[in-house]
Write a structure and sequence with these properties.
The chain has 482 residues and is an alpha+beta fold. The chain has helices at residues 3-10, 47-52, 57-85, 91-99, 123-128, 132-148, 152-172, 177-183, 186-193, 198-213, 220-257, 259-267, 276-280, 320-332, 378-383; strands spanning 338-341, 344-345, 365-366, 368-373, 393-402, 414-418, 437-443, 451-456, 472-475, 478-481. A hairpin with a 7-residue loop joins β7 (437-443) and β8 (451-456). The protein is extended. Residues 56-242 form the Splicing factor cactin central domain.
Amino acid sequence: MNPDRQAMIEGWKSPRRNENRDITGPRFDSSHRIAKPNRQAPPKPTAAAAVSRYLTQDQQSEQFIADEDKFVLKQAKKKADIRVREHRAKPIDFLAFNLRFIDDDRDVFDDDEGDVEIPVPSPESLLESLDESQLKELDEDIKSYHTLETNPRNKEYWTALLALVARRRQKLKPSGPEGRALASVASDVDKILSPKTLEQLEALEKQIRTKLTSNEPIDTDYWEELLKSLLVYKAKAKLKKVCDAIKAAKVELLKARDPEKAKALEESAGLPDVTAADFASAPNKTVARPAAPPSASENSSAPPPGTARFSSMGNEDFSQATKALYDREVARGVGEGEEIFTGEEAVPGTTTPLWADKYRPRKPRYFNRVQMGYEWNKYNQTHYDHENPPPKVVQGYRFNIFYPDLIDKTKAPTFKIIREHGRRRGESFAPAGKEDTCLIRFIAGPPYEDIAFRIVDREWDYSAKRDRGFKSSFDKVCRSQT
């Protein structure tokens, strides 16, 4: 009962009120000594704190690209692990598999107890066994990992390998008289640099750069060659540092599994010197999947790596946003039965767009794939089998065209099919055994020009199944269509 009402009934004086009491706080009760504490209102957020809770559009795009990069890198590592375990690995898979033992960002659920006993070539022995074409392909694969990697130690590993691959490719190229003259001092350079540690090499690098920038009368060719060799030895030292960490991790894993192998590995000078041929002769060997054709740029003035086939015109879109999207898509690679598709055609009836005086027209970049496979119709079932399959035919296309700088982002890019010579849908002018082709034209709007590709003209599956069928979307400034 209220103390005031109780006092009125019993005829005694009401308790004295506390003039300073919070009217929203708990009332005093003489029969109960426990009362709820006064509630304190939470502090009002400042304007800076309120703004920090929300991301701008640019920050959201950066966050999305970073998350996508992590996913693509994780999938690339997982595919490399699977190919190594199934004995159908490419050179890049060996390098990625070696790194997994010290990779803090790997998914532990992808680990296999038998991975530590798989004989994998060491990085240096692997590079020595490759020819020029294989090194060129490996260089592109390493750049994909280097672009996506954020772990400092992992990135240092790929950076060192890039330097060693470049040096190895340079050695395989025939050298002219100047190269032969510089090669005469190679033995002296090796004697100077080979016994030095990484710290000593970094100190010597500073001294050489200081000497080259000074006005002293020096043999410039000798010191420049010494600097180039020093950077290679520096990359070797960094690679050895990472390989020592890989070896230590493998020793720890082997101690519980096979102590004798662990002791042998611990006493060895480095990682086991296994060649790719030794690995290929192991059980359960399967045929490797065909690699995607490499395309690279050899100098800094050329377009970014993998874009040489797009450089027929001078208005290509090489912005940083486009490059990030393109590199992420390249890192996804090609799947089973897929090939890179570059069947670009001139856009028919091209005229200067009306907005050309306001925005500089640019050509969008793309990374397209074509799905190839066997068509087991009655004729092929009669004349072919799985050991002697029929020729592959096109089973579908996957277009990925990047439009990060669209002026009007509320309008999604569209496409249309163009059949030449008055041919209509369903009609065929092709001879027996051939298929008609048509153009698929993508239209986005300023500042992007239209782009067209030649594809097989047939009735496609529009059922939008999980792995097949038609799908057209415009998400995160990328036009995707399968």
